[in-house]
Design brief:
Elements: H1 2-16, H2 23-101, E1 104-114, E2 122-125, E3 138-140, E4 145-152, E5 157-161, E6 168-173, E7 179-183, E8 191-195, E9 207-210, E10 223-231, E11 240-245, E12 254-260, H3 299-307, H4 311-317, E13 320-325, E14 331-336, H5 352-355
Antiparallel strand pairs: 1-2, 1-12, 2-5, 3-4, 3-12, 4-5, 6-7, 6-9, 7-8, 8-11, 9-10, 10-11, 13-14
């Protein structure tokens, strides 16, 4: 029955439009119920949203985990790309060095670097007897000498690094016939160079290369390092120096073993090019001061300056003034001469100013 009555009222309200008799009733109901609805909605809606978000937490966590995995994958790709670029650069330098020296090389990867107290500085590389490697072969990277092969297995080889304390190699100073030996002193320290004979012309910055056969088992003309400090020796029969290695032994990666040198390379042909010094900036042209009238020193100035150094002036400065009080309370001053003897003029006679000094009469 209530439903039928409600439907009847709704039909009458719709058919009547703006002139509906229920318009004032509807407006009054809206004015009373509207604020109540807004207040209830302000309380109920956040609660409903909170419980709805609880249901979405699982979905949000899944999205966050997915984004974290994608981020890790991108970072791994960036690291791999950086390693690939570094490896490509190192191999390019290796090929350039082998090309300048005409070396036949076998590329290898450094698998491990080991050193213990009292033991050798060694590295294990991924090339062995199956690749034609034999002991005492020269090992290089794109910068220069790394060491020599000390032991060989089928697939790997052990390399004694040039920084080892027992490592020694014959070298030649660039652009000269001066020879000597370079020995290792440990990782992070410079090589020690000792000349075979006096060489007073050894200078800081000169570069050293390996001697090669027949005096050495190392490949010839491999860059070793450059002189950083020349040390004086007793008697001058030898020259010692500190040498900075070209190779960074703390970051070895790609290396090559020189298996053959068909033709001895020309002297100093394998050395890297020297850095070109920057051209000095042109100096600014000197500006001369604007010409103006010259001012000659005045005669009075010269006369005054010279008079302060004459015996007369010195004698006058020796005079002092004594201030006394008279019985009447008035202050009087008396000029007295110092007890020093009278100075003589440059001609040998007493100065007129010194001889004419006498006590002044009292002003009392």
């Amino acid at each position: 029955m209530l439903a039928l009555v409600s439907l009847t009222f709704v039909a009458l309200d719709v058919r009547s439009g703006k002139s509906s008799p229920f318009g004032p009733i509807r407006s009054a109901g809206t004015a009373v119920i509207g604020p109540i609805e807004r207040a209830i909605g302000g309380v109920v809606n956040p609660i409903g949203s909170f419980f709805g978000d609880i249901g979405d937490l699982g979905r949000y966590k899944g999205k966050a985990d997915k984004l974290a995995r994608e981020n890790q994958a991108l970072q791994a790709q960036l690291r791999a790309s950086a390693r690939v670029r570094a490896r490509a650069d190192e191999l390019e330098k290796l090929l350039a060095l082998a090309g300048r020296g005409g070396y036949r090389i076998v590329a290898a990867q450094v698998d491990a670097v080991a050193s213990a107290l009292g033991a050798q500085w060694t590295a294990t590389v991924s090339a062995g007897s199956k690749d034609g490697i034999r002991p005492d072969m020269t090992v290089v990277n794109g910068d220069g000498l790394v060491g020599r092969v000390s032991a060989v297995s089928t697939y790997t080889s052990t390399v004694v690094l040039a920084v080892d304390n027992d490592f020694s190699v014959g070298v030649r100073v660039e652009s000269t016939a001066q020879i000597g030996t370079v020995t290792g002193q440990g990782e992070g320290r410079p090589f020690a160079f000792t000349s075979l004979g006096a060489n007073p012309a050894l200078k800081v910055g000169q570069r050293l290369v390996t001697l090669g056969p027949p005096t050495s088992s190392y490949a010839a003309e491999v860059p070793v390092g450059y002189v950083t400090k020349v040390e004086a020796t007793r008697g001058g029969l030898q020259v010692r120096a500190q040498v900075a290695p070209y190779v960074s032994f703390s970051s070895l990666d790609a290396v090559s073993i020189i298996v053959a040198v068909p033709v001895r390379p020309p002297a100093d042909s394998v050395l890297p090019p020297k850095p070109t010094p920057a051209a000095p900036s042109p100096a600014a042209p000197a500006t001369s001061p604007a010409p103006g009238p010259s001012v000659a020193p005045s005669a009075s100035t010269n006369t005054t300056a010279s008079s302060t150094h004459t015996p007369t002036a010195r004698a006058s400065r020796a005079t002092s003034r004594r201030v006394t009080a008279s019985p009447s309370g008035r202050r009087t001053s008396t000029a007295t001469a110092s007890a020093s003897p009278a100075r003589r003029s440059p001609l040998g006679t007493p100065s007129s100013a010194a001889s004419s000094r006498s006590p002044a009469p009292s002003a009392s």
